[in-house]
Amino acid sequence: MLKSTESPGNGTGPWNFTLPKDAIVTDEYAPLLPEDERTAQLVHQRLIQEVDVKAVEKLGPDRSVEAVEMATRALLAEVGPALYGERKERVIRRIVDDAVGLGPLQPLVNDLSISEVMVNSPDEIYFERDGIIYLSALRFRDRDHVSLVIDRIIAPLGRRVDESSPFVDARLPDGSRVNIIIPPLVPRSPTITIRKFRPDKYDMQDLVGIGTLTQTVADFLRAAVQLRLNIVISGGTGTGKTTLLSALSAYIPERERIITIEDPIELKLHQRHVIACEARPPNIEGRNEVAQRDLLRNALRMRPDRIIVGEVRGAEAFDMLQAMNTGHE
Predict the structure, then answer these.
(1) What pTM was estimated for this model as a whole?
(2) Which site in 1, 48, 90, 315 is 20 to 30 Å from 97, CA atoms measured?
(3) Residue 260 DSSP SS3
(4) Residue-number span of the structural domain to which 215 is assigned
(5) How far apart are CA 148 and CA 104, in angstroms?
(6) Which of these, 298, 282, 246, lies nearest to 160 by C-alpha position?
(7) Closest by alpha carbon to 97, among 85, 105, 88, 89?
(8) Is residue 179 within a helix (H) or strand (E), and if so which, with residue range?
(9) Half-sphere exposure (CA, 13 Å, Cβ side) for 253?
(10) Residue 93 to residue 105: CA distance in whole angstroms
């Protein structure tokens, strides 16, 4: 990994633009050469004209990527026959990511060492790794390019973001949580924040091992879960509330029925007998909203042994306290 002052993109050589001083550049994340960028855009335009990308997307994530990559290689052989090696592969990856992925965000989403991705504007993309925020050298072409990626995120979920509903929570297919907010609430540019889902689950011993809590506290929390006590986990953004909750859930016996209520869904529990409920925002007419408190009330009729509310931030707090007072855990 190199700082931008040590890499192409500092206004010298074939790169004829200046990267931000603190930009992080790797082979995978470095901007394309200007001529390669022009080639990529030309191939992408041909791809849109000659391939029904919408139909290809219906094949599923893996098959759609394979189909678009095959078409891209064929078109690139015509448009850029001089490209070869890793330089050619980087151009192909960029085109495929733009066609069926999340554009310049895709390599960051694919990187398992990255925990958060933040888009402030087309030319400001940040990511968090090991608790440190870095400025990436990746960038969008313009605000329309950012909006295109936003549509790709929320369209499959049946959600919308526009002037009447200028922010939305969503999730990626892998479970990563996404927040989007658009102008005029953020006048500069549409903003995207992705809290990535970890495929590996931390258990309590992992948390003890990395110093998140002591063994004494872990033993106390295990006893609290096993004794069916009510537990509230509180903390700031990014402090590991969901991670701790997922780890604690391992102490719930398999024989118990668990109802989870979230907005959006992100918990991955260890048990099989789990009913996951997700709140629904209002539609374009402002109707048919299902709030977390509605789901909580309904959960009381579903014969729950345990009710887990992923995040309490509104009127559902009152209903949760009522449920606690009536003996529900």
Answers:
(1) 0.76
(2) 1
(3) strand
(4) 204-325
(5) 12
(6) 282
(7) 105
(8) strand 177-181
(9) 7
(10) 12
| Distance from C-alpha of 119 to C-alpha of 117, rounded to nearest angstrom | 7
Q: How far is CA 219 from the centre of its chain?
A: 32
Express each pLDDT in 41-68 by its tens digit. Answer: 899 889 888 888 778 877 877 888 899 9
What are the residues facing 127 on neighbouring strands? Answer: 117, 134
Q: Please tell me the distance from the alpha carbon of residue 259 to that of residue 255, in angstroms, as a whole number.
A: 13
Q: Name which of 169, 164, 196 is nearest 180 in CA terms.
A: 169
What is the spatial distance between Cα 92 and Cα 76, in angstroms, rounded to a whole number?
Answer: 8
CATH of the domain at 271: 3.40.50.300
What is the C-alpha to C-alpha distance for residues 145 and 127, in angstroms, rounded to an integer?
19
- Residues across the chain: 329
Handedness of CA 293, 182, 127, 170 (dihedral sign): positive
Model confidence pLDDT, tens digit, residues 287-319: 788 988 899 889 989 999 999 988 887 777 887
DSSP string, 186-236: STT--EEEEEPPPSSPP-HHHHHHTTSS-HHHHHHHHHHHHTT--------
Strand (E) or helix (H) holding 136: strand 132-136
Q: At what angle do helices 241-248 and 215-226 cross, to 10 degrees?
A: 60
Place of tokens 């918990």: 267
Whether 268 is in a domain gets the answer: yes
- Is 220 a member of any domain? yes
Backbone Cα Rg of the chain: 23
Q: What is the CA 91 to chain-centroid distance, rounded?
A: 24
Residue 314 in domain: yes
Mean pLDDT of the region 250-263: 91
CB-based contacts of 227: which residues, under 8 Å, 6+ apart?
none
CA 115 – CA 1 distance, rounded (Å): 17
Structural domain count of the chain:
1
Residue with tokens 């048919």: 288
User: Among 144, 140, 182, 175, which Cα is nearest to 160's?
Assistant: 182
Residue 218 lies inside a defined structural domain of this protein? yes
Percent helix, strand and coil across the chain, each rounded to 5? 40, 20, 45
